[in-house]
Each structure stands twice: as C-alpha cells, then as structure tokens.
Amino acid sequence: MRYLPLTEADRAAMLDTIGAGSLDDLFVDVPEAARRPPAFNLPDHQGELAVERTFAAFARANRAAGDGPCFLGGGAYRHHVPASLDYLIQRGEFLTAYTPYQPEIAQGTLQVLFEFQTQVALLTGLEVANASMYDGATACAEACAMACRVTRRKRVLLSGGLHPQWAEVVRTFLAHADVTVEDLPPDPLDMEDLIGRIGADLACVVVQNPDVFGHLKDLSPLASACREDGVLLVAAVAEPLSLGLITPPGEMGADIVVAEGQSLAGPLSFGGPGVGLFAARQKFLRNMPGRLCGETVDADGRRGFVLTLSTREQHIRREKATSNICTNSGLIALAFSIHMSLLGESGLTELARLNHALAVETARRLEKLPGVKLLPGAFFNEFALKLPCDAEPVVEALAEKGILAGIPGRRLWPTYDELHDVLLIAVTETTTEADRDALVEGLAAALGEHNGGAGQ
Amino acid sequence: MRYLPLTEADRAAMLDTIGAGSLDDLFVDVPEAARRPPAFNLPDHQGELAVERTFAAFARANRAAGDGPCFLGGGAYRHHVPASLDYLIQRGEFLTAYTPYQPEIAQGTLQVLFEFQTQVALLTGLEVANASMYDGATACAEACAMACRVTRRKRVLLSGGLHPQWAEVVRTFLAHADVTVEDLPPDPLDMEDLIGRIGADLACVVVQNPDVFGHLKDLSPLASACREDGVLLVAAVAEPLSLGLITPPGEMGADIVVAEGQSLAGPLSFGGPGVGLFAARQKFLRNMPGRLCGETVDADGRRGFVLTLSTREQHIRREKATSNICTNSGLIALAFSIHMSLLGESGLTELARLNHALAVETARRLEKLPGVKLLPGAFFNEFALKLPCDAEPVVEALAEKGILAGIPGRRLWPTYDELHDVLLIAVTETTTEADRDALVEGLAAALGEHNGGAGQ
Amino acid sequence: LEEPLIFELGRPGARGIDLPEGPEVTPRLGGLERQRPIGLPDLSEPQVVRHYTRLSQKNYGIDSGLFPLGSCTMKHNPRLNERLARLPGLADLHPFQPQGTVQGALALIHTLAGWLTELTGMPAVAMTPAAGAHGELCGLMAIRACLEARGDARQVVLVPESAHGTNPATAALCGYQVESIPGTADGRVDVDALKRMLGPDVAALMITNPNTLGLFERDIIDISQAVHAAGGLVYMDGANLNALIGRVRVGDLGVDAMHINLHKTFSTPHGGGGPGAGPVVLSDTLAPFAPLPYVVKDGEAWRLIEHRHEADGHPFGRMKGYHGQFGVFVRALAYMMSLGADGLAQASGDAVLAANYLLARLKDHLSAPFPGPVMHEALFDDSFLKGTGASTLDFAKGLIDEGYHPMTMYFPLVVHGALLVEPTETESKASLDAFAESCIALADRARNDPESLKQAPLMAPRRRLDETRAARQPVLRWTPPAGD
Amino acid sequence: LEEPLIFELGRPGARGIDLPEGPEVTPRLGGLERQRPIGLPDLSEPQVVRHYTRLSQKNYGIDSGLFPLGSCTMKHNPRLNERLARLPGLADLHPFQPQGTVQGALALIHTLAGWLTELTGMPAVAMTPAAGAHGELCGLMAIRACLEARGDARQVVLVPESAHGTNPATAALCGYQVESIPGTADGRVDVDALKRMLGPDVAALMITNPNTLGLFERDIIDISQAVHAAGGLVYMDGANLNALIGRVRVGDLGVDAMHINLHKTFSTPHGGGGPGAGPVVLSDTLAPFAPLPYVVKDGEAWRLIEHRHEADGHPFGRMKGYHGQFGVFVRALAYMMSLGADGLAQASGDAVLAANYLLARLKDHLSAPFPGPVMHEALFDDSFLKGTGASTLDFAKGLIDEGYHPMTMYFPLVVHGALLVEPTETESKASLDAFAESCIALADRARNDPESLKQAPLMAPRRRLDETRAARQPVLRWTPPAGD
Predict the structure, then answer these.
(1) pTM of the shown model
(2) Given CB atoms, is A12 within the 8 Å cutoff of chain C?
(3) Does residue A43 sit within a domain?
(4) Is the pLDDT assigned to residue C339 strictly greater than 70?
(5) CB-CB neighbors (< 8 A) of C216 in chain A
(6) Which of D272, A47, D329 lies closest to B89 in space, CA to CA?
C-alpha cells in the first residue's frame, strides 16, 4: 500500500508508546454496532498500472471533444491550454498547499490571489474582485444574495438570456432566503423588456452577456434604469474571453460581475471544476462573499499579502456570515491567472478577435444553408441557428458521424417546445478549417435528409 | 514570438547603450557572404496549438507500443513508469539545471547523483559507479577502452551473445585506438567457448547477461579464468530489472558492469535517450570514464556533494582524458534513481519476479505450438523461439493484426541466415492476460497459415 | 529573493502566446467593441514561467513536509490521480456532449457514487456539491425539502458549540434559526441538554463526528434516535471522515445526510484553496429529494437525469452548473481504487494511530484538555504556555522555523488557545518523531526564551504580517503607479 | 532544512509500488537466483515524493533565474516540448517495431534533419550522436573514414589553444595527435601560424566558431580554404551555434562537419547533466561516410537504414544503440517549429544583442580583454580584481548570494581568471539590467570589502564545499553504518 508509510513494526512501536494493545482499542468510543462493518463489496488495493487500465477503459468509452470537430459552448468553451500553465499548476508547492492561512509560508498562493483579483477587476471593469468562487453559477447566486443584503430588498429578476442552469442554481440557493426570484422565459429574439420591469422593490436584475444564445447587448440603458431605482445590475459572463474584445460590464454600468473562468483556465473536464469570478464596486466590498487577499507589510516592512476582511466569513461570523463558502477554487484561479499572464493585453485581445472572426465566418456559411436561419443579433464566438426541424436528432445524427455540432435547444429548455429547433454553435480557435468544413457539410447533409424525408 | 522577451523598444535601447546602429552591426565580423542567407525554405513561427497539431499528426502515423499487445525487447523494455517519477523529473529545478558545476546551488542534482551511484553499485554488485553515460552501448565501448587502459593490452573479445548494436558501437569506438576487437558470431545455443579464448594478451572479454537471446549465464567460471590471466571481465546488462532476481555480475566476478538503464527509467522513446550505467571495482576508480560525484563537507562542516576526480576529464586533461564525455544523461539517471527509490528492495524483487513468472508462463504456452521450439537455456523476461519459417513475415503479419509479436532474427542479424527463424519475445508486467492470449493465438494462426501454405 | 507583481514585470509588446491570423471578417459585435485597454501586462513565456516558479518557491505544501493542520486532512496527493485526470478521454469532455458520447464519464460518476454509498452504508448520494460547505447546504436543503413535503415547517437547527462556522452559516442560508448545544467536560455534546432542546420546531441536528475536538461522539446512535423520535433529521458533518472510512459505517449511526470532502478524505489536492467536491450521502428518507443532475443506470447504458420532468423523485433544485466536480471525481476514485477496501481501512486506522501517537508523545510537554484515545487529531490547549509570555500563535509560528506548517490554532473555540494537530496516515514514524521533538523543543523554548518565539518565523520568505493594517486599509488589487 | 540520503530514510517493509501477484511458475533462472539482498531501502510513495521535492529545492535552474553560464547556452526550456515528447504516439514507441508502424517517428527524424540542413546550408546530417562531444567524435570519424578511403593516412589534428577540452580529447580518441594553434592578441586563431602548421600530415582542423572567447573567427573562409588546399578537412565545433542560427549559414564558411547541440541551440533541457543530442551536419565530401542508422524517404514512405548492406555510402560505423536521441529530437523540432525561420533568426540576434549589452554595461566596472562586438557571450578577465584580494571564484560565488547562477569561470584558459557570460536571448532587459547591477555592486564590494566576498555564498543551501577533500579521500557512494 504505497501511500501508507507506516510499517507493521512502526505500528507496533507506536501502539506501545500509546499504551494500546491494538488499533481497535483506539476506536473504543465508536459503538460496537458501527465499528465492524461487514466486508465491503469493493476491490482491495491495486497498483498504478491496474488503476490506469481501469481509467483508460472509462476514457475509451467516451469520445473526447478533441477527437473530432467540436462546436459545443453553452457556458463551457474549449480553448487551448498552454503547456507551461499545466506544468506550473502541478508544482507541488501550489498543488498540495492548503488555503493560505499561514501567510509567512504561503506568499506564493497569496501573491497569485492578489494578482488574480487584480486581473478579474481589470477584465470586468470593476474595482474589486474576490479570490474565486466554486463556479459561475454559484457566483451568480451569491451575487443575488449579496444584492439583497446591500439593498435590503427581497426581489430578484433574472433575464431569460441567463443560462438556465445558472437560473436554476440561483432559485435553489435563494429558495429559503425569503426572496422572490422572478425568472423570465428564454428569449432568443431579445424582446424581453427588462427596463420596463425595473422597480424600487427590486434588489437586482441579472443579465448574461453574451447571453445564452450568444448575443451581445449594450447594458448601459438598463444600468441607467437600475441606478435610478437603486437596483443593482448583476452581469453574468459565461465566456470571459469575450471581455478581450467587448466593453466590459463594469464600464457599461454593472454593479456586480460574475463569470465562469473555465474557458480561460483549463480543460472542459465535463463541466467541473470551474472557477467563479466575482467582482463588484468598491463600496460593496464588505458585503462580498468569499475569500479576499490584501496587501500589507511584514515585521521588517516588506510588502506581503494576507487573507483579509475575514470578519465577513463563517469561521468568525458563523450564522451571520456573508456566505458559507470556505473551500473555493484556488488552483483553477491560479490557472486562470497564469493564462492571463501568458496572454497579456495583446494576446487576450488577439485571441478574442480570432474567435470572433472564426465564428463570424462560420455563421456566414451556415446561414446560407437552405432552411437555416441565424437568429439576429450581435455575437462573440457563439451564435444560435434556427433549423427547419428539431435540432436534437440532427445533433445526434452528426455525433454519429463524429461531429459535435452544437447544443440543441431541447437540452437547455426541455419545456420550451418553441426553442427545440434552436442549435447553439460555438466556434473557438481550437476548431480547424477542416472541422468547420465538416460542420457545414454535415449540417447541410443532415438537413438535406430531413428535407428529403419531409418531401416524401 | 513567445520565447523572446525583448521588445522592439528594448532592442533599440540596448543598441543605443552598445553604441551600435543595428543588430547587423554586431555581426560585422562575419563574412558578408555567409551573413545574409537566402530565405529559408522553412515556415515562420507558430503558436502552441499549431505545433501540437503537427506533432499529433506525427504521433498518429505511429502505432504506440501500448496501443495493443507488445512483446518487443532486444535491449529496450517496456515497463510501467510511475506517475510520481514523471512529475518529479519535470520539476524545473531538476529539468532546467545544468551539470552541477556550482555545488552550493546544485546539491539537489548532486545528492541525486550520489544516491544514483550507490544504487548502481548495489544493483551491479560492484564497489563504485559513475554518474551515468549516454546509453548502454556507449558505456560498453567506454568499458572496453578502460580495460585497455587498465591492462595496457590491445585486444578485446566480444561474446556473440552481446547485442549486435552494442558490439558495433564498441568496434566503431575503438576503430582508431590501436585495439583489436574480436567479436564472436551470435550463438543461440550457448556453444561459444569464451574460457578457451582467454589469454594473457586480452584486455577484456565482454559478456551480456541475460544475453541478447534472453539467456542467463553463470559468469563465475569465466571470471576465474579471466582472473588467472589478468583479463578484465566486462558484463553488459540490457535489462537491469533482471538484477532484482539474479546474482549480480559483480558477485559473479565481473570487474566492470555496464548497463542500459532505460527499462527502469522511462518510456521506450523509440530507443533514446537512455542512460548508461557504469560500475567497476574500486581499484579501477581513477581509470573510469564519466562524471563522479563525491561526498565532502562545506565551510560549516555540513555534509555536501561535489563533482570530483575531474582530473580524469577532458576539461582538465584534454587529449589525455579518460573519455571525451561531457554531457551525459543526468535527467534519465534521476528518473532511474527515483524508480529505484519507489521500488525499493521489495518492489524491485517483486517486479522482477512478476516479469519472470509471466515470461515463463508465456514461454510454456508458446513452446507447445506445433513447429515452435524454445531455445534451451535459463532466462529472465525474454526468450527466443525457433519458428518453422522466417520470423520476419510472421512478425509483419501479426503487426497487421495489431500484435507486436517480438523481434525477428533478421532485424538483429541480417547476415546470419541461420538465425532468421529466431523470434525474440519479451514479456513484462505491462502485458495483460488478453495480450498474452492474443500472442499465443495470433502466432498459432500465423504459423497455421504458413504450415497450411507449405502443405499445399 | 523578492518577486515583483506580474504587473510590474510587463513590457508592452512582449508576447507569451503566438496566434495565427484569423480570417478577415466584418465584425458582428454590435458596436460593443472595447474602447479602452484592459490594462493587462504583456510578458513572454520565460518571464511567466519564472514568475510562477519563484512564487511557488514561497509556498509550503504537503510535498514540502508535514502539514498537521487540524480538521484539514492534509494527506499525500498521489500524482497518479493528476495523470488520470489529464487523460484526454476524461479531461476533454464537454458537459453538453450527447450522452451516448460520454458513457465512460457517466459510468465513472456512477462507480464513484457506488464506492461512497458502499463505504458509508448509506443508500444514496448527491454528487454535485462543490465543497464541504456546499455539501452541508445540499444536505440541509434536502432536509428542508423533505420536511416541507411532510408539511412540517420546522424552524430550528441545533448545532454543537464546538462546530465549524460553516454549520451555522449553512443553516442560516437555508433559512433556519441556529441554536447552540452545550458540550460536556469530556468534550462531547451534552446529550441531556440536546434532548431537552428537541421539540416540534427542531428541523435538524448538525453534528460533526468525530467532532472538532477530535473525539468520537459516543452517543451518536442514541442522539440520532432521539432526534428522529422528535420528528427531526440528523445531518452529520463529514469533515473528519478520515478517521472512520472503511472502519465505521455512517449508515449504522442513524444519520440522514453527511457530506464527504473528496479533497480531504480522498486526497484530491487542496490546491491552495480548492477546488474540492462535497458529495452528500443520504438516507432513504432524504434520497428522493436529491438535487439535479444525477446518473442512473438504464439497462446497459448510463443516463444523466438533468431535468425535473425526467426525475423519479422530487429534486429540490440544482447546486451548480453541469454535473459536479468531475475532475475531482476522477482523482478521488483513482485514490480509492488504489487503496481499495483494505487500504482505506488501514489508512483510517493509521490516521488515528498517528494522532494518538503524537498525543502520547506530547501530552507531558504540551497540555491536552481531553485524554485519549482521540480519533484522527490531537487537541492541545495553551495551559502549558501559561506564565511564559508566549502564546499559541508564537508557538505555531515557531514551528515554521523548524520546517513545519503549523497546526490549526485557536480552533475549536471552546478550548482556550487551542492547537489542533492532524498528522494523517501519510506521515512516516520518523516524520512524526521529528515533529514531536520539534514541538517539545519549542515548548522548552517557550519556557526558557519566550522572546525568541515572539520573533518567529525568521527563516520564512516573510516575517509576521500586519493583518490589522490589511483589514483597516484594504488594498485588494494592484493599481498602476500615479503617472503611468 | 537538511535532507537525509534516501538510504537513511528507508524502513524495511514500506512500499512505494503495489504489484499484482504473478502466476505460480517453476523458475527457469538456471540456479542464478540472487543469494543476498540488494541493499536498497524500502520507502512509501509520500516519502519518495517529498525527498525529491526537497532535493529539487536545493537546485537552481533556468526556471529559477538568469543562468549566464558561458558556452552552455542556458535558455528557456518550453514546456510545450515536454508535453509533446510525452504523447503516447511518440514516447511509447519501441525501437524495433516494424517500420510500417513507426512512419510518424521516421518522418519526424527526417523533418528535423531537413531543418538542420536547411538552416546550416549543409547537405547532410548524421543524427545519432548523443551529445556535443559525441558529435565531435562522429565528425572526426567521418573525416578519418574519408581520408582513409582516399588512402591518406594523416596523423595530426590542429586545435586552437582556446578550444574546449573535448576537442583534443576527441581527436585523441580518434587516434590523432593534437597540435595546438596559438591565438592572436585580438582573440582569434593566428592564421599565419595555422597556415605554417598545415601540411601533408594534417588531417583536420577543429575550430570553434564563434570561438570560446565569444568572438567570430573572421578569417574562417580563408582558413577553410587553406586547410582544404593542404588536403585536410575542417571540423567546426558548433557549441556556440546559438549566435549564428538563422543568420549565418555554416555551409557558406567552407567547413566539412559541425555538431549541433540540440540541448543548447534548440533548447532541449540540460536536466542537470543531459541527455543531449549532437547531430553532425556534413559536407558532400563527408556525407557518404555518415554512421548508421539513418532515415531515407522512399517514395511515400520513410525507411530506416540500419545495416551496412542497405546503405548507399560507406558508413564508418555506429555511434550508439538504436536510432539516436529521439526524445530529444521531438523537443528540438517543437522548439524550431515554434520559433520558425523568422524566430530563430531573431533569437540569435537577441542572444548576440544581450551579450553585447552586458559587455557595454559592464566593461567599465569589470575588465574585458577584447573589445566588442562579441557574439553571444561576453568575456571578462580578472584584472579588475587585481589588488583587491578577491578572486574570480569569489566574484562568482558572490553572484550566488545575489540570486544568480555564476558565469563560467577560469575558462577559456587563455584569459587570466576568465569570467565568461552568456545571457542568451530568453532574458528580458529588466533581467539583464538587474544582473548588470549586481555585477557592478559586486565589483565595488571586491574593492571595498573583499573579505565578505570570500565568505560567499552565505544564502545558498551550502557554503563553499571542500573539493580537495572530496578528491583526496573519494567517497563516491553511501555505505551502511557499521553494525547494520
């Protein structure tokens, strides 16, 4: 058992020092009934090679996104992960460290968090950011709770353009908080009248940008309306790469920005772990959830960093804490931060531009297909098509041919039949020209079969 | 260009400090004719993703050994590489360090080398070992040269059981050293009379154990004969895992042991880089080639390590050096050493026993196939079959079915027709039961077709 | 060596990434193009690698040495798990791939769920919570959903005074009032007091077991029965499960829900703050209320239940996006399969052995408020420092100069100047002995030379940091120097 | 913190690897079973990971900081190359797989060979040498084979006095007598002296260019012509190729052979001592004598020529087992493709720029024996230390406390107390400036407080080590303490 350093001789000597006759003697406080479980129906220990074979079999039973063309987005984006990033986050001093409670020997993690907070603030156009949350969806829920704390109001409005899973997490999180969560129906044509719904009883309104259909919106008019009524504007960002190219929500007037950092931090990993980004205006600082890292000096006057403002947190405030969050997503925040450093101003901008160009070009080709309509609106690297039929069987048919063509509306909105002909398509730099050709041709063929079938 | 930190502004400022007008001015000493090469027929810089795609294409055009059953040995053995090993050797402080010329800030590498030297000495049963050579074959050549220096004799005898490439490297290396290299023909039946060829004009005799056919030999009688005539016995080991189970050459009387460490250090990597192990009796220390790490103390009296006895080496001795070796295989030596530490006494012994058991069981099944003979002799994890036909087309046919069945005699000894029906088969812990079944069944089928064909 | 902030290292025009030219297109950004620069620094790859390498060298991890942070279970993190989590067939899966293309991933989740339920003896598990506190929330939400389904609007959650702050914080998030249960002189929940507090308004008890003092709640079965008899449910905080796994079946203790920190008990790396994963095992009572999504076996295939209308039960909602911390699942399952049933039982046994060994070696030098046997952590108070002038904090910082990460300090709150030591099962005896000797030497130093301890640490990248200043004048981000 | 030897950490019975039971068989070991234990220590995986982590922390690499070791070209080692070298389709290839199953590997070798010949303007390349010195041997063997094929038994190799020790050592290995060519006051080969030494017995000139003083041998074309005219051949030592690659075509200089250290010029990591790879580019004269094996393109397929009877030319033999340092090839080609033709030219330009910049910044504080422009390294002598009592060694050790790896010291031998500084192209200007300032401060300290320099380093894991003791009483391995 390679992870256990004690030998039988060590165990005997230690029991002797303790004055116990056996390991079992140490468990005397455990009721006898629970202490001797029957044999588990589980295998005994195995070597690396055996475990690797098991996991290789799990892996083989999947089709990796990179095994062929992949145009899936919907809040999880496949971008290239630099090799140096993946090396650096595996360094034991980062990987195997705890939350930096002992700042003297955790300056590495702490300086990274300070840099991360700065990068998130810069990217979102807001003043302060925390040291990360679990993911974008939970960050969004925390933002709504925070808005209620700040405004002392009890109503939250969610745009229909918000990722339906994020909306569901918000609803769940606030279910017992004496807060009314009003979520608008999904609206691919951008007809929802958010401004008209702003009122003085509202704690916040949550808008995703780009929204779940990929559409970009100018949040400024909404922000003005919110400001007038003392409503906080929460902007949700599922693809932070977009912020390399578009005006950040903070500049458009958002008070809180939450985002999912996965797309710029690491592999898709089947949707988790991600990293929640959370930024806000300075004045809301003491109402923010999550860990915060701050600059200070040490006994010799040298610059250093510590976790700070912990009086907001559960280990001090207990039931009065701003959140119950404890473990967050430090390592993925590190990955995000390293990627920001590698990209820099110029790289982030260019990568965003490349994504946009490839998406625009692909959309241009797809919207020419007979029966296919591109839903109108500005977009970044993801867009929505309206097909002449239910998108799900089309997606399944293309998957059979090795093409992950996009997300069918049914997957996101099973109860909205009118959206079942929607196909969401994300195009990133990881798609090749051949991939894009395959998508266009594959979709044309699949729809041709459909049309052919319909014509019979 | 992500590897180049200087910006255009930096370059201009630096040229200014230098007092040069342009980069070109710094190349003024280079003849004009050579200074302005025509445009290269090579692509310009590319991002990680593009380079990865190119290499993925190279990789796809290969069949990885682990993609199916693999029974190839012949001096390169496929063993499991522990994940912790591969992590540790990638740590920048090891990976990106130079040869430890500045011991104060290279104690990591130096202590590793000291531990490596000890492990090699223990494993080979000899007193001292150096800090590694390029690979087993070059170590073998250096051993012959060393034997000539020690004995001041000019004749070297190579057993026919020595890997033919190792023999060729020895011949090449000594081609201009005024040394006669006598290499005996390959001898699968172990009939060669090495003892009868020992004589007082011989510097050394080189014997591989297990030999290239996989056969194990008791070197003791040969060692006695050598000792009588002042001949050094050089033992070559291509599969050091065997030393976990069998009496080491040092204990059987070898004076120098050279080995290829790849099998316990890392992936096959198409045969390179490996790591040459080199051990000898203490009394030959000052005639050894290669780097040596020794224990000493620092100015505060603390134990520390340095490269030592460098007066043997080329940077001091120049044309009188024991070898011209400079760069060796430090990182692979580190990998070897980590694996030794993970395995330990018990793990190395058990891994060796497992390999042997699987090889014996597989041999037992294969020798029952009609027309197949197991060449007689003791063996560790590799053995030689005699087929009823040329082995090469059989191997090619099995490769078509996804089975890397072994090495056909023709590949090693193209000019020895009588060995073309030999098939060398290595069985390690990385083969599964299904792999071994596939080999037995595949070989039976292939030979059945052959027999069937012969019967027509 | 000092390492500047990344923002202080940048040079406009440097590049850390090379990108191809994209096609020329007419933008479709709707006029929302960024008008101002972001403000990120440009750096080359060598600078970035060196920056983070140097920062990492200012950190201490379990790879660096003993990390006895009580209640945190800082055990060895096998690299095999990192390797497996990076297999393209596991890492490179999109959460919205058609289910037919991710059968291996669904099977993996289902397999891990099977290990968790089998080891705990609980019938069901909610896999998606992202961390321990998130798991607590999931468990309490299931409890609340269950009670509400019964039409039972209970308002109170009982929490022992020794509990982690997450317990009351979670209960509050779930809309409950928190009442604190007093402890006994022997460090357990006061069962009589607890029973007196039970009543028709008590929704649940949240009880940490082993508790935060490192002691097993001997009366847990009795307690569970009493809570159930009063119509409430029992949430067990599984933060300290490492003492029990493979040896004690939680299902036999009568609890209804317990979260499992995969990043503690099952060794997925803490990464300087996460990510973790906090699956919650559930009793039959609570199982129907488990949140979405979850995986079911459907004949030979695995199926992901993502939407309410597909569910058999009454899922109370959704904890996070997608399907849980899949990358963490891979690591945890690899760890569990490596140790196996026999190894997990040995591991918890060794963890408990190591804690009791340290207690035995240190109890005459430090002061232990409770006698052993303890479970997987050894608790000390600061009475051994009384009159020395040195504090718990000084003692802990002194350990840094000895080459160790300090233990947890000043927690649990119910013990004065607490020092909570959790060595875990992955330390050798030599390592435990060396640590004990350092602690003994420090205790001597506290008596003989307390002033020197107050200066500690001297050998770390920083001396003590001014936390008051950080909180009073918060500087939470870099800003460009004036004039830039 | 001190780290014991691995042998001092072991505990009998600990395990770092778990293995399945094998089948029960009757051994076929011929009675050669080991009779005595090996003597290796048993350890668990956590102990092993921590041991090597801690050892690594006592090392300095290019990832740690500037590593200006002259003549060693310590440049940034991209992690992309490590990633690619670990692709199973490249790492997990057996050298004896049927050639049809390794077409990608053969194509890769052929592609790399194409880059090397195109960049150097040389017609052929021998890929298999394992390192620079091995490449030298390969080149000289090809020369010797060529001359012998002409029936020309020349006996002498000329080597400039400033050459690396590997040059004369290699010539001796090849059976040649070595004659040393004097240098000129401006740091180049004395061409007149060289021409006087040429004659019917001179087989070859081995010339390092740029030479070890960091200077380009201006007369190289003239020199090559003279050697050729005298019937000899020219071997150029490519250790310093980083100054030229992509900017200066070696093929235009008239040389016949040159090795290329892939681990210097093309950034494959040095790994604390290797592995490297030293392919040798060859002129048309020498190409037919290239050693086995090599790759040829055969229609659409690639073919490995492993045996003499398959070869078109007259291969002089074989340098090592199998097909060269394939894993190093992968890394080098990835590096070359990443930088591309434009990037490689920029890289050599930046390397030369950085060296000249340091020379310009330091020449008034240290002492430079030759004026610039230099190529990719800046050479200083110890005249600036004259009268201070501090030596080149003290100065270099002082740099360690400043956070740097020292430069090469006391080499080349032709300069008194030489300090050879090679910054490479992968340092930022800020990094070069900081290094220059440290050097200037140290030079001041040498004048004002030389005694303090003699104590350096004080901040490294060790102070100066007793090398004399190590050599006089060599202890080259651990031995168990008496009584064990």
Answers:
(1) 0.97
(2) no
(3) yes
(4) yes
(5) 27, 29-30
(6) D272
